[in-house]
């Protein structure tokens, strides 16, 4: 709700040497942010390379008009949609995936717990990205750091110091 938020986020990313093209901001569908304010925040950060996803699609303020009026590139489909489909086999759910795919969104389905869910998402719903207990339960900070270390990822812990022009010249000699 702060008008300076986009500039503050850009400044923070720059101070840590993080290119915003590596940052995706999730907007939860239960967030009641005024449309114009959200659109301004999104377009400013998108112009600097960031992307936006709508989280928990299918709950809260979720509707097609909101999607059409906002520059989301990723739709995270709430687990309740998937779980309901596997209880009822309702024809509406595959149609939702089809529509979102046609519109060109990158889809992430939450709550994937079984191979059957994974295969349906891959083969029928054409959903490229999944998250859920089938892949990993939530992990604490220590285990996350261990994972990063084991997979040669560098956690960002301090601002990156940029060398001065004089330092760059000396290093090149």
TrEMBL record:
| GO MF annotation list | cyclic-guanylate-specific phosphodiesterase activity
CDD domains annotated for this entry? EAL
Q: Which domain of life is it from?
A: Bacteria
Per UniProt, residues of the EAL domain are 1-152
Query: InterPro entries, per this entry?
Result: Cyclic-di-GMP_PDE-like, EAL_dom, EAL_sf
Q: Which PROSITE patterns match?
A: EAL (PS50883)
A Pfam family annotated for this chain is EAL
PANTHER family noted in UniProt? CYCLIC DI-GMP PHOSPHODIESTERASE PDEF, SIGNALING PROTEIN YKOW
Name listed for the protein in its UniProt record? EAL domain-containing protein
Give the organism the record lists. Answer: Candidatus Weimeria bifida
